[in-house]
Every structure is written in C-alpha cells, then in structure tokens.
Amino acid sequence: MQKNSSRQRDLYYVAVKAFLEKDGKLFIFRDKYGDWDLPGGRIKRYEFKKPLEQVLKRKMDEELGRSISYKLGSPVVFMRHERMEHDTNSTVRIFAIGYLATLVRGNIRLSDMHTESAWIPIKSFDPKHYFTGGWLKGVQEYLKLRRK
C-alpha cells in the first residue's frame, strides 16, 4: 500500500542565523563553495537542550572569531531553505530562525570556510545579487522590516 504523499512528514535541519548590523549595514559572507550566507548555522545533536542564543554564539565564534562582541536582539525572520550538501551531494532542507544582532566591537576574522565578506548598506541592498531560495526570501523579509 502506497502512503498518501500529502500525509508524509518532511525532515528539516534547524539553524540559527544572525542579521548582523553595524552603522546601517548588513554583514554577509561567501563560503568556500561560492554561496553567500549569513552568520550562524545548524544545531548540533549535543546542543538539543541549549538555548538557541548559545548555539548562535558558538557559530558566531567559529565563523567570525572570538574577538567580536555583539548585542543579540529578537528573532525576526523564519526561513526555509533547500540546498545541496557539498560533501554528500544530497539535498537537505533547513528551517532557520533569524535574529537581529548589532556588532558592538571587535574585528571580524573569517573562518577557513569563508572566502570573502561585505558590509552592505541596508537601504540600498538588493539581495537577489547574492542570495537564492529560502535565504533570499528571508533576507527580503528582513529588509522589509528594517526599511520601515
């Protein structure tokens, strides 16, 4: 008997992302595979009971260096993104929670996984030049909120 596809559940990884701002600009970076992204990432198995803010702190430390300090705001955008995993060549779906964040001090030092970064003016940023899929929709939603 074939299962009704409308009743099948989908599986998602869960991630936390930061819309990191400074002086009216948004921080974005490119990974070694050529994709633009926001700081943050997936929850690890051992972090199941940890507050999401602590998961985001781990990712920020890994990706931007431990010398930065930022003020974390509220979650403002929820994103669903589908992407190819480069190490397994399989497609995964990611549900992400996007937090507002403001850089307070420190110099960003990119991890080995990232090749370039940019601070883009929020008022004139056209994310279609950088993002695709669910990340694009999420950044567009964030920009609507910030441009009000």
Give the termini distance in whole angstroms: 52 Å
Helical content band? 10-25%
Assigned CATH class = Alpha Beta
Main sheet makeup? 7 strands, mixed
- Per CATH, what is the topology? Nucleoside Triphosphate Pyrophosphohydrolase
CATH architecture: Alpha-Beta Complex
The DSSP helix count reads 2
Compressed to H and E, one letter per element, the order equals EEEEHEEEH
User: Low-confidence parts lasting 5 or more residues at pLDDT below 50?
Assistant: none
Structural class: alpha+beta
- Overall geometry comes to globular
What is the beta-strand fraction?
A: 35-45%
How many separate domains make up the residues? Answer: 1
What does the average pLDDT come to?
95
What is the radius of gyration?
A: 16 Å
CATH-level-4 superfamily name: Nucleoside Triphosphate Pyrophosphohydrolase
Can you count the beta strands?
A: 7
Structure, explained:
The protein is of the alpha+beta class and 148 residues long. It has one domain (10-146): Nucleoside Triphosphate Pyrophosphohydrolase (Alpha-Beta Complex), CATH 3.90.79.10. It contains 2 helices and 7 strands. The protein has helices spanning 52-64, 133-146; strands at residues 13-22, 25-31, 36-37, 40-42, 69-85, 90-105, 114-121. Strands 1, 2, 3, 4, 5, 6 and 7 form a 7-stranded mixed β-sheet that branches. A hairpin with a 4-residue loop joins strand 5 (69-85) and strand 6 (90-105). It is globular. The model has no long low-confidence stretch (mean pLDDT 95).
Features:
148 residues; 2 helices; 7 strands; seven-stranded mixed β-sheet; Nucleoside Triphosphate Pyrophosphohydrolase; globular; alpha+beta
